[in-house]
Amino acid sequence: MAVTLNPHATTASIMETPMVEIERLSLWYGAKQALKNVSMAVPKHRVTAYIGPSGCGKSTLLRCLNRMNDLVDGVRIEGAIRVGGADIYEPTLDVTELRKRVGMVFQKSNPFPKSIFENVAYGPRILGVRSRTDLEGMVERSLRAAALWDEVSDRLHDSALGLSGGQQQRLCIARAIAVEPDVLLMDEPCSALDPIATARIEELMLKLKNSFTIIIVTHNMQQAARVSDYTGFLLLGELVEFGVTRQLFTNPRDTRTEDYITGRFG
Amino acid sequence: MKRLWRSGEPFIWLTGGALATALIMVVGLLAIIVVNAAGFFWPAEVLRLTLKDGSVLTGSVAARERIPGAHDVWRLKMNVANRDLYGADFVWVDEASVTRRQRPADVAVIERSEWGRLIGTLTAVKDGDTVVAAGDAAWPELERRLPGVAALRAEIRSLEKGAIGSINDEQETIRLALRRLETRGTTRGPDVDGLRARLAGLQARYAAEEARLAGLRATQTASVVVTADGSKAKDLPLAQILDVSFPNTMGPLTKVARYAGGVWDFVTDAPREANTEGGVSPAIFGTVMMVVIMSILVTPLGVLAAFYLREYARQGALVSAVRIAVNNLAGVPSIVFGVFGVAFFIYGVGGVIDRLFFAEALPTPTFGTGGILWASLTLALLTIPVVIVATEEGLAAIPGGTREASLALGATKLETTVKVVLPAVMPSILTGLILAMARAAGEVAPLMITGVVKLAPSLPIDGVWPFVHLERKFMHLGFHIYDVGFQSPNVDAARPMVFATTLLLLAIVVLLNLFAIATRNRLRRKYAMSAV
Lengths: 266, 532
What we know:
Number of helices of chain A: 10
Shape of chain B: flat
Largest sheet of chain B: 6 strands, antiparallel
Helix content of chain B: 55-70%
Oligomer: heterodimer
């Protein structure tokens, strides 16, 4: 893997096919600046992790990528983000189209109060799929991809709220990938799960990266080290360092990164 | 003592005691209603009392109570009926003055269409002035004739309501059409002549039907002679007899059958005798129809308003103020809503509708007077805070993550609201509707001025085009209770009716609620939602 890292680290560039390019991105919530001049290129079909202490802006950065921040009042954004080469903050862009290409899994599992089948079929239905057989195929494929099929295949029409926490989170992953997005954003997907359920989701991420570009926000540095190929460290809205995961953890370039991963703060 | 308090035991007793008090009061209320209503339909035994002064009283015992101020002296309240003969249905008798009690088998209790019940002995059946049967032969003769009497009464009724009623309706339509032409300045010409010719035809048909009716009535010559206490004889036309029974010879099974029949008649018959007799079916119909119309009006309005408040409006001081105002609206006295209904719906909206669409009928108002639509609208206004608050609470209980998940899948805000939020909030909407229906079914004050009447000549739904007549006045169980209980000319006789009507109203509210609760539970099971 040919990787060149910018010595200044904040403008990391990686010599792989980029899927998501972020250029000098700054974001304000009212008067408070949450992201400062962040630039990076997220490579295709890899797992990229954002780490950093609470309030550093990693979730904010993630939510910029499918424009979920649009829903918050008083947000102002400067800079550019391109997904698959297209600017996503272009005024004529249809946000719903973008969100179909950039899926998201949330910190707290949030299945709809519907059946398991209807949860997974929701996205395809929004896309206009009507045929029952098509929907059944999509649901099965997505549930298999999310390693949930064997556990729920006999109760697809039961309420999704009857599943365990780990199952619910995998259902949310199945729901997100049912619309076949290019990018899958995961906002601390394991923070509410026990270690066994966490291990299953991590296993799943490694499998899914063959088909999707995955960006994960995590509090857990071991998790970032286990699942990600690339890691970005954010601190107070700044991207301090971005690079190959092993290198960042074993040989950080910035002393602040070293302080954080050795547990001196955060 | 301190340890006892710290153990929490007294608090548990306090909470339990509060619940028990509430339950006892509710159960007591229900018991009073049920006990008083249940006895109403039971065929009571008829006693013949002979008093010290030699006079005789025949009737059923309605109550027995201690004479105030005296020690262990009781008096009986006898329902002697025969209002036309004695002037009153009830007589008080000192038990001390009773010398003999008998249960004569030959005493008949006759339900009739006028003057309440008649209690006495059948002495003869007459046709015109000829005696057909007398003494013991009177009852078999009467029993043989009763089915024919009932059939004739049904025929007369169907003639009055059916043929003559529809001729009247048609005449009214033509009269209004003429009026419409007149207001446009047309008082002569082919149109007017055509209508006048049809009117003349109808008048001829009307005269013919009237003659038929008079002919039928002329055949009702038979009568029965009944001897009551004090040898007073009553010559009762058979046409007035609804039912004859001999309670003292009835077996328990017959009594149960008559009881069931009495309940059935009460629920299915129209009222008679200024509502103090007969059934309450028009009031049941009016109550249910009004609640249904109210539900149809209030649900979409309240739900949409709650959606705007919670899903779309920017949460701030203004929305909080609106929310408080909506909550307070639930505390406005219902009569105020009634006054608003009269001023706004009836005189305002109804007046405009009349001027635009029913000008030919003026000055007789069509929509500009109380009617079931305006009463339902007024109640919808009254109950809308309940629906808004329940829906809003349901919306607030849906986790924000649920909406985000839908948006993140590329759904628009509208798709999210309709496909995710609405189904999830459905149980709460039904909860609101249940509360609204319970409130609306029991409300009387605003209805009294927006369309409820003591006796409505026709139901709001019938066979005359356009079948549903929302402008019509209607009867309502709640008002019926008030009317029978407090406005009736014969309060004593009507009292059991008040309890029976109350019980019926309660039963209808419970039934409507059970239906809504069952629907809600099915939805909850489907989504395995927590109780929101």
